[in-house]
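Narrative of activities, Objective 1.

The group set out to show that a structural description can be obtained from nothing but a protein's sequence at a throughput compatible with the screening campaign. Below is one input-output pair from the validation batch, recorded exactly as produced.
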Amino acid sequence: MNVLAVPDSAERMSSVSSGNALELRGVTKMFGALAAISDITLTVGSGERRAVLGSNGAGKTTLFNCVTGDFFPTSGTIRLFGEDVSNFPAYERIRRGLRRTYQISLLFGGLSVNDNVYLACRGASRGRFSLVRTRHNDALRVRVAELIEAVNLTEVSDALVSELSYGQQRQLEIALALAGAPRLILFDEPAAGLSPTERAELINILTSLPSHIGYVIIEHDMDVALRVAESVTMMHNGRVFKEGTPEEIENDPEVQALYLGHGEDGGHA
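Output recorded for this entry:
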């Protein structure tokens, strides 16, 4: 199966889902008396690629944490593909096609690239608790090879993750996020710390993802964000500040002022 094909499970699930991958309505997260995010209303269509921008402390990562189930919102509702998941644990959201990467790489450094991707695929499969060893031509092993190829790591598939460059580790995280049948992926600053060459590689990978997989990307590198997104949400002080196309956001004077650091920003990232 080609990685660009729609997995059968994703095809079945998308046929019964709503037209939106993600819907937030009035989502607020309080930490004591402090509102990290306030009254967030946001819609991401199925297959849509959206960037969420904002300076440090704008509330972007807190927003992601609420969507993934790392935090439960203090108020408001979160719907994934038409289903209210506001109080669902993270694993239930994963079962519904949600995936995420983090700012800090979460990989098994002492294992190979192959083994890392295999564990991700095995963990998302029905046979994840089976003690039967898979063969080299098993469907799961074939899928592992396809995902590694999709993120351009075939040449280092047998290398230990600890031996990879930082950029290659970020590419590997994308492969892990593609395991199973993802329908919406949240990328948390995937370009952070990458060289110009590595950023170009990241852009190529993201823009080559299957069209049925939508994503939301938090990114401080505006050049990367605006090249991989078709819509943009700008956050400020824990609230949605503006929304528009990449061109509209890039040319907006107020956005430019905030992004260049001329605005005061509070709250937590």
